[in-house]
Amino acid sequence: MTPTLQAFVFVSGALFSVGLLAALSRRHAIFILIGIELMLAAANLNFIAFWRFAPQPHQPPVGVMLAIFSIAISAAEAAVGLAMVIAVYRHYHTTNVDQLDQLKG
Amino acid sequence: MSSIIDHLWLVPAVPFAASLIIILGLPNARRRSAATLAIAGQVAVLALSTVALLSTLQTHGFRAVQNFTWFTFGDNALRLGFVLDPLAAAMLLMISLVGLCIFVFSIGYMAEDKNFVRFFAYLSFFSGAMLGVVIANSLLLLFVFWELVGLASYLLIGFWIERPSAAAAAKKAFITTRIGDMGFFLGMLWLYNRGGTLVFYDGGKGCLESAGLAMLGASATFIALLIFFGAVGKSGQFPLHVWLPDAMEGPTPVSALIHAATMVAAGVFLVARVYPLFSLGAINGVTSSLTVVVWIGVTTALMAALIAIAQADIKRILAYSTVSQLGLMMVSMGVGGVAAGIMHLLAHGFFKALLFLGSGSVIHGCHGEQDIRKMGGLRRFMPVTFVTYAIGMMALSGVPFFFSGGWTKEEILHATAHWPKSPVPYYLMLAGVILTALYMTRQVIYVFFGNPRASAEHAHESPRVMTMPLIVLALGAILLSVVLTPAWSWLHGYLTGEPVHFEIGRLIQPMLFVSLVLVSAGIGAGWWMYRKAGMQAGDRPAEIDPLEYAQPALFRFLANKMWIDELYAHTVIAFSWMAARLSNWMDRYFWDGLVRGFGAMGQLLGIFTSDVDERGINAGVDETTVGARGLGRLMSAAHSGQIQTYLGMVAIGMLALLLLYAWLA
To answer: What pTM, to 2 d.p., does this model score?
Structure first.
């Protein structure tokens, strides 16, 4: 059976939902970052899928290029995020985001 | 002789200065200095007056004036001035001489008074004002001094301010004379309006000289009557006579000086001074204004003489006799006998001052008693007072030959008899002469004859300082008869400017017999009526007056001063009370109500705006802030600092946008 666009979008949507759930419900900063990575992965999957199932499939590989860009950016973002987590930990001695409410109005 | 007129201003200035120094410079204890200063001032004035009199004797019909400009406004100048003529000079001498006697007398009479110093200050002040009236050459200046005299009179009547009756009498005198002065003032304004000048004699331009009089025309009658109204007030003529008897509340020297000899004579003097106004356009010596003067004078003379018969207060009797004599002088003015009136005024000044000082001596001797029914038999205790008083009484009654009053009264009768308008005043005057002799006899009998009663038992003669002025005045009353005799019409000629001639035949005239008969009748009737009065001794003063016994109703009518005071109380004063109450009510309720209404409106407006402010604007602002705060709180609740909540919101927003997009597409 040939995988369809719907299947990819479904998987991508599930992946995004799991990532969002993780980002919203986990208390540990690392898990939140993992959730965010999951959502990025869902987006990358969408890029590739929509490129693959486009009306003219072998056009310049725009989708792949975008996915690669996105992965690069997410790598940088993860690096920054982990650096922030370490900085926060050093400052507050915790990575529990519930206790990090200094931005409260 | 221009030197005296140049210094005439000193005549009022000296007593004024003395008064000022005394009141401002001397403490209450410096009695001797105060009296010395006042008397020295009076002596200086007497000397000046004598010089003035001598200078007027040099030429016949002497008149010197000294005018000066008070101030100018626009093209007009208000001019004042002093005048020296026989009328002024004679008055000056009389006032300063009588004044001096009274000043000296006051030293004795007021010896016990705690306000001795103030008294002499007032006396000097009065003297200056009165002398100013006499020498004023401008109706305005005369009016100024006239009012000063009124003020002095007010101060002196109310001298014993601790007595309510004295305070009331002072107020009454001041207000009553002010009513007359209002007429005077209006007359003065009218005169200035018509004539353009108030100076009497101004080298042909004055208001009493022919050119000035010609400008007045028919209004002269009204001007003269208005000015006469002022004289009525000052001289205690009917209907404004009511203040004069009450003015006896003042110390007796004051009564002598002001309410007998000088001030009340100012009214008569005023009429004499502005006589040309009265006689303008006279036909046969009669004008309508002079006719009014005659009738007012006759009414006053007769009425006051009647009232005097039934009075019991020694000073009140003299007060009414003053009113009566002033009426006599007014009649004399009115019938054309100006010189006779002034001569009577001068003679009256002496003998009335004498009588008042005599009564003062009696009161002093009887320790302040003024009721003649409580005296009696004083001739034994007070011989000097008795003799001088008797001389004054005979001068007042008009006994001819030896007493000044006799000649002048006879001359007035003579002038009245020839009044062409009506014979009635003449007969009424004859009745007045009888009455005068009658009430004076009554008074002398009550005071000096009979047996000593309640207050007379410890009577004593007054000290020399009081009897000496009496003697001087008594001599004056007698010696004046020499210059007043009709045989040698010197004073008459002096005052009128007519040629003087000596004619012994005029000594004996029909009028002499008339007056002799009348005076004898009056004194005889008095003696007969009151021969038994006052015979009771001891502490029974309230015996019935013979007249009261015979005619109780008439006596009550007279003793109550013909109920004129009561009549005024129920008419004029009641009216003025009503007017006062009405104004009070208007002020309190109408005008005040308006003001309060406006106030209330303002208050209402204030309440309204404050309400708008409080509940509208303030509340709006408050609500806004509360809302803002609530919103802020709500918003800040969203701002929890929980990063995941933010993220959730972003997710919800994203979802919402997606749904919106789906729905729109």
So the answer is: 0.72
